[in-house]
Design brief:
heterodimer; A: alpha+beta; globular; B: 398 residues; Aspartate Aminotransferase, domain 2; 2 domains; 38% helix
């Protein structure tokens, strides 16, 4: 992915993020995720039914990297099973940490494939993933109990 | 001024985050190295030469601090880890003892977390109530508003001398005089004021003062708690242990040492205190009045240029300290800070630990430039040049 395309994707999702709104719907699980070293602060709402992520939305204040990363994450995760979502997240994590990963499944999230060069922004890109992982893990734990 | 004294300034760096911490002059670094290299022993021993030297240097540093803030007694200077610890000691060790349910603690919404949370905790623990002095349209504290906020229940007023986001200087002397006439204690958070102008605790007549070494060219991990001696006598040590006890046999028979040692349990931050002493001597050599004047001039120089840039929202047009808070219209402050970082300009983005201020100024996050005497007009020129072009910021902020 070239520099210009990367920038375009990130700016588009920053200026007009998808699914940016709050919900009071009880079917959604809410998680707050924030960056200790800066001021990114997001609430993410996730609706999971029968192992499938039916919907995600978010609100909060965050930098261009965090906001766009959240928007892209949501776009890519809706409709995925919890299992596939976790695989996607693992790939994203690998990309940020310079390990082997599957470019195919990350789609637009490949826009962050150079972010490892800016240590202080890596966490911004991963912030929404940190939040949603908590919900996914919690869901899996409750499922395995049933 | 005095740029050549700072090893950090040999780098290509424009450092505008002095409200967070300051660079250290070579003399402070050397003074600390000297301790590590030539008399690296513990304090309060004196059985051998190098240990005796430690005591001398450590107590010299205390005397330097005493003179610097014009405290009456050396016993009233307690070394702590910084402003935060000092304020916690004041709230927990002193006020917790005698505040009763519904007694009132007056602060403002522009205080730093360290001058908010210790009081919030007191409210939760002993039922005293935290109340806010309203700020005027420039986010200033006026004596009038202090008077209006005082009730028969008010027991303590805790204020920053200068705040860290707005940079307003409070009329501490007038507030203290009025408070004392009503039997109210005054606590001053000096973190942003003591490094930047002359502080005379006797003239101000404040009861307690807290400040940090690292914000005034000293090392991190050292700070000061000043209290009028008769009040410090009443302050219970939060930490007990080595160094501060006279003797003990069992829980009924414990004897603590005199001030200030009683409040410095454990091996003190010896090298920190020695470094702070040297930093103070360094600042005094430059002159606190000169430092204040330089910062004021430089701030005005910055405001004069920034005011003409239409996409900058200046939050504190009025300020007494060298602090400028602002936003670039429509861009998250952190993105602007990252952009500036690409040009080696260091500014802070965030809420600056003043999380309840947002309801006063209507702005949650901002960029903050905080100046010190080693900043120059060319630092400001570089900043202004980078902020002028909004398209460039948008283009390069990722």
């Amino acid at each position: 992915m070239d520099e210009e395309l990367r920038r375009e994707i990130i700016m588009e999702h920053y200026m007009q993020p998808e699914h940016r709104h709050r919900t009071d719907d009880k079917d959604y699980e809410k998680v707050n995720t924030n960056n200790e070293s800066c001021i990114d602060n997001l609430d993410i709402y996730v609706k999971i039914k029968d192992g499938i992520i039916e919907d995600i939305c978010f609100e909060g204040e965050a930098c261009a990297i965090s906001t766009s990363s959240t928007s892209i994450m949501i776009h890519n995760l809706i409709g995925k099973s919890v299992h596939d979502a976790k695989e996607y997240i693992a790939n994203f994590d690998h990309m940020l940490n310079e390990k082997e990963y599957d470019e195919e499944i990350l789609k637009e999230a490949n826009a962050y494939n150079e972010i490892y060069k800016q240590g202080n922004r890596k966490h911004c890109a991963f912030l929404p993933y940190e939040g949603i992982l908590k919900i996914l893990n919690k869901y899996e734990a409750s499922e395995s109990k049933n | 001024m005095n740029l050549e004294d700072f090893p950090m300034l040999k780098q290509e760096l424009i450092y505008l985050d002095n409200g967070a911490t300051t660079f250290k002059p070579k003399c402070v670094i050397d003074k600390m190295n000297e301790y590590y290299e030539t008399y690296s022993a513990n304090a309060h021993r004196g059985d051998y030469d190098i240990s005796y030297k430690v005591d001398q240097e450590y107590e010299n540093a205390r005397e330097t601090v005493r003179k610097f803030i014009n405290a009456k007694d050396k016993e009233s200077i307690v070394f702590t880890s910084g402003t935060t610890e000092s304020l916690n000691m004041i709230a927990t060790g002193f006020f917790k003892k005698f505040l009763e349910p519904n007694d009132e603690i007056l602060i403002t919404k522009s205080e730093h977390a360290s001058n908010v949370l210790p009081w919030f905790r007191l409210q939760n623990e002993c039922g005293a109530l935290v109340k806010y002095i309203p700020l005027d349209e420039n986010h200033y504290v006026t004596l009038e508003n202090v008077k209006k906020s005082i009730t028969p229940k008010t027991k303590v007023i805790a204020l920053a001398g200068i705040t860290n986001v707005i940079g307003d200087e409070r009329p501490m002397k007038e507030i203290t005089a009025y408070a004392h006439a009503h039997n109210i204690f005054v606590v001053m958070d000096g973190a942003q004021s003591v490094p930047h102008r002359k502080t005379d605790v006797q003239d101000l007549d404040i009861d307690f003062l807290a400040f940090s070494g690292h914000k005034m060219c000293g090392p991190t991990g050292i700070g000061v708690l000043y209290g009028k001696t008769e009040l410090l006598e009443e302050l219970d040590p939060v930490n007990v242990g080595g160094g501060m006890n006279e003797s003990f046999d069992n829980p009924e028979k414990i004897y603590y040492k005199e001030l200030p040692t009683r409040l410095e349990a454990g091996t003190p931050n010896i090298v920190g205190a020695i470094g702070l002493g040297e930093a103070i001597r360094y600042l005094e050599k430059i002159g606190m009045d000169k430092i204040e004047e330089h910062e004021k001039k430089l701030r005005k120089y910055a405001i004069d240029q920034m005011i003409g840039i239409p996409h900058l929202d200046l939050i504190n047009l009025e300020a007494d300290g060298g602090i400028l808070s602002f936003n670039v219209d429509g861009i998250f402050p952190q993105d602007v800070a990252y952009y500036l970082n690409k040009y080696k300009v260091c500014v802070r983005a965030g809420n600056h630990c003043a999380k309840i201020l947002k309801s006063e100024v209507g702005v949650k996050n901002s960029l903050r430039v905080s100046l010190y005497f080693y900043n120059t007009e060319s630092d400001i020129d570089a900043l202004v040049e980078l902020l002028k072009d909004k398209e460039k910021i948008l283009k390069e902020m990722l």
